[in-house]
Amino acid sequence: MTQIRKIVLLLLVVLVLPQPALAQDPIQVDENTWDGNFRDYLTFSLEAHSSAEITDVDLFYRIVGQIATSRNKAKFTPGNTVSAQFTIDQTEPGNYMPPGTDVEYWWKITDADGNELKTEKQTLTFLDNRHNWQTRQNDRLTLYWYEGGDSFGDALFERANEALDTLETDIGISLENPIKIFIYANHNDLLQAISTGAQEWTGGQAFAEHGVVVIGVSPSQLDWGLGAMTHEMTHLVIHQATDNPFSDLPRWLDEGIAVYNENQEELDDDFKPVFDRAVANDKLMTLRTLSSPFPADPMEANLAYGQSGAVVKFIVDTYGSEAMANLLNIFADGALYDEALEQALKTNTDGLDNAFRESLGLPPLPGAEPAATEPAATEPAAEAESGESQPEAQPESADAAPAES
Questions:
Q1: Tens digits of per-residue pLDDT, 327-356?
Q2: CA 150 to CA 156: how far, in whole Å?
Q3: 93 has which bridge partners?
Q4: Which of 101, 175, 223, 390 stands the most exposed, by the fewest C-beta atoms within 10 Å?
Q5: Taking the complete model, does pTM exceed 0.85, yes or no?
Q6: Residues 119-145: pLDDT tens digits?
Q7: What phi-psi label fits residue 113: left (phi over 0), alpha (psi between -120 and 50 degrees) or beta?
Q8: Which of 108, 126, 144 lies at the terminal end of a domain, its last residue?
Q9: Both 289 and 201 in a single domain?
Q10: Do residues 101 and 209 make contact, with C-beta atoms less than 8 angstroms apart?
Q11: Strands 212-216 and 204-207
Q12: Burial code of 335-353, b = ≥16 C-beta within 10 A, e = fewer?
């Protein structure tokens, strides 16, 4: 018993004796906040103190989905206690961020004794706060809209998910990162939300690196909006699946998949009449022509879109979805146009062109033999060779520039 009493007394002494205080970092953050108005400003604010004079405060930020990080000197008065701010001027075109941009940010603070503190990285979502958004969300996408009621939003949300399903089953590509879709109720609201360099007639934009689609759809134009939204979001999925530092897709393939995804059975009314007329008169464009930016003339542009969609449907129907998926995987490795087609479909651009023409009852291209249309065996994607140039594809939907320091 005596031994037990000694142990108890020792424990009591240990508990009563003052414990050494845990060491604190010399620099302490008291407040770390942000505030912003869309298309106006985005301001980061920090309050901190230290046992020595704080001499440097830097804000770092990165647009989620991009590699580059911007380092910026905050405005503050040096001292043991500081209030620091850094503002991104959203009225400058080079600083434009589409609605829904995710921004990762953190601070680095240095004092006169050489102590440094880096805050934990935080992420904010920069929304267009001029509207009261309604949302529908799952693990693949978030839909935002502010006019039209639940039935309007539900119809768009359902179509967006159907479009993603079609890309998986027919084309063989799927989302790697969730996307955001913003539906503006009229053209004027849309123009106030997209970058200042956009054309007046722009109906929507896909910001591939941000994973954002911005489109104008009035509740009275739901049918048009379902197709337009599908088209733009398809470009995001294609970008995620095939983006590489070496090459882009041929324009006909990028736009053709988007047109096909709008309606897998037939071309819509904007494209079908002009395409049918070109077939009847043997006035189709060549696929090599359609590998480059599309014509500016509206009628020729509609033919380019319609023909591209028809070629993609021809590939899916003739060679199969697995061959299409393999083709995109090869392009994702940076392959050149003919190289990718030869590996995936056992033909080149002219051969595919002639096979497509033959399916429509048209003669082959001048100087070319009719092409075989046997389904291609699926092979693993090969790495692209370097040193060969090709036309650069220009996506229909312009990617906005990231925020600059």
A1: 999 999 999 999 999 999 999 999 999 999
A2: 10
A3: none
A4: 223
A5: no
A6: 999 999 999 999 999 999 999 999 999
A7: alpha
A8: 126
A9: no
A10: no
A11: antiparallel
A12: bbbbbbbbbbbbbbbbbbb
